[in-house]
Amino acid sequence: MPSPAWTAIANQPVPELKTIFESDAGRLSKLTLTHGPIRFDWSKTHLTDGLIDAFVQLSEEVDFAGRREALFAGEKINNTEGRAAEHPAERGEGKAESVAQAKALHSRMRGLIDVIEADGLGPVRHILHVGIGGSALGPDVIVNALGDEGGRYDVAIVSNVDGTALEGAMARFDPHATILAIASKTFTTTETMLNAASAIGWMQEAGVEDPYGRVIALTASPEKAMEWGVDETRVLPFNESVGGRYSLWSSIGFPAALALGWGAFESLLEGAASMDRHFRLAAPRENAPLIAAFSDLFYARILQCQTRAVFAYDERLKLLPSYLQQLEMESNGKSVKADGSPVDGPTAAITWGGVGTDAQHAVFQLLHQGTHIVPVEFIASKEPGHSLDPEHHRTLLVNCFAQGAALLRGKDNADDPARAYPGNRPSTTILLDDVTPEALGALIAFYEHRTFANAMLMGINPFDQFGVELGKEIAKSIEKDGPKGFDPSTMALIDLALG
Predict the structure, then answer these.
(1) Long-range CB contacts (< 8 A, 24+ apart) of 210-217?
(2) pLDDT for position 148
(3) Contact of 31 with 45, CB cutoff 8 Å
(4) Degrees to nearest 5, angle at CA 464 with 462 and 467
(5) Does the pLDDT value for residue 150 go beyond 70?
């Protein structure tokens, strides 16, 4: 039975976007919000005063404020695994003991970075980072977006167990000038440890003296790293209560902190901390992550939109859609609530996207004229990431803003339906002043809290990910016991490909 709040949400009228603008002269000011270097614009969505009121009622009905406070208090809100979710403490916002521990571990990481920068581990020009999931996606999006400080280090972040990925990185690097960073919360992740072993073999074959002395372990299981052969002084731990897809703020961010410089990494943390404070303290109608969650839930649950598209109109942010796929779909792709009962509607939308302007010539046909309604998110920066003719960036931004306008407006063509655009298609625009460490930190923290807000309003636990385990278990059983008892298709594939 729907709750009173969900009933109120479902009963709200849904006028066309053009009509909403025409009937509310103050709409733009009400549905735009500026936080530091970021401007959020939800005015091209179907959110109305009535819908927002109903969603605020829902947030009160589920005690959203109490659940948010539990997050920052370090309570065990990840109930299925019996642990807290303390990634905000890595940014200085959370339980005092956890904040103190995070600061101490950051100091340890900075100390090791100082040693590396002073050639204490010998000349270092390359950073080979192996991890998977959150242990790779987070550092990768940061390093790709912000580059490195003065080109001191060439960074390769390898996640795929396909040897082609690792081989390509090793072909570029001098093994005698490479630091190997192994990122694994448990230090047992199959793909990561296989890549790490192959990287050690590469160093040994090249005659590197003491390859294990060039390894930095980024883990919540330091004893496992030391058993593997990493010297204790080169182990950078992080708190067990920091989940993998929320871990780039911890020692998992080591390659970014080394490549960008410590000052940039601190600015990244402070940008995220500013969003933490905003999320924790801002009223519901002025709270960016919460308003975004209202929009997400309206489209997923009321209009039954199955996907959400994210397009970065900035080459520096090209990896952000991939990062958000894991953050949102691994967190909220659930079919039961935190109490084990079945969910009462769709949960996470399928997140996908790409880079503008490339995507305009690939997928925007469907967005403008297809039968699916896909909420679109545009992300852009006022300042370019290059020194070429300003016309490059002007053309980029004009295209970004034009796409949002076209999705809303549409175009009639009674004579030729193939050239008609229905319009009334929603979009959000997030405009950064520039892609700086502070802005990027705030942006990623915004997405983290938006994911959390969605989960709390739906009553699900966003911090476990049991859905990724079954395939791993079956793979291990095939390796251990051989292909026994599987379906005929799987048996035939194993026989044909593996013998």
Answers:
(1) 211/180, 213/121, 214/121, 214/122, 214/178, 214/179, 214/180, 215/179, 215/180, 215/181, 215/182, 216/112, 216/179, 216/180, 216/181, 216/182, 216/254, 217/181, 217/182, 217/187
(2) 63
(3) yes
(4) 110
(5) no
- Tokens 């969003």 belong to 275
Query: How is the chain split into domains, by residue range?
Result: 4-61+282-464, 87-266, 469-498
Q: How far is CA 324 from CA 68, 177, 309, 314, 359, in A?
A: 21, 33, 10, 16, 17
Do the first three CATH levels of 4-61+282-464 and 87-266 match, i.e. the same topology? yes
Contact 191, 158 (CB under 8 A): no
Phi, psi for residue 230 in degrees, rounded to 5: -85, 130
Domain 4-61+282-464 has CATH 3.40.50.720: no
Q: How far is CA 158 from CA 33, 192, 196, 457, in A?
A: 37, 9, 10, 36
pTM of the model: 0.96
- Residues 319-364 pLDDT 10s: 999 999 999 999 999 999 999 999 999 999 999 999 999 999 999 9
Q: What is the dihedral of CA 45, 48, 52, 55, to 10 degrees?
A: -80
- CA 37 centroid distance within chain: 19
What residues are labeled active site?
A: 330, 361, 472
Closest CA relative to residue 423, chosen from 20, 10, 12: 20
Tens digit of each residue's pLDDT (9 = 90 or more) over 93-131? 999 999 999 999 999 999 999 999 999 999 999 999 999
- 5 vs 467: CA distance, rounded Å: 30
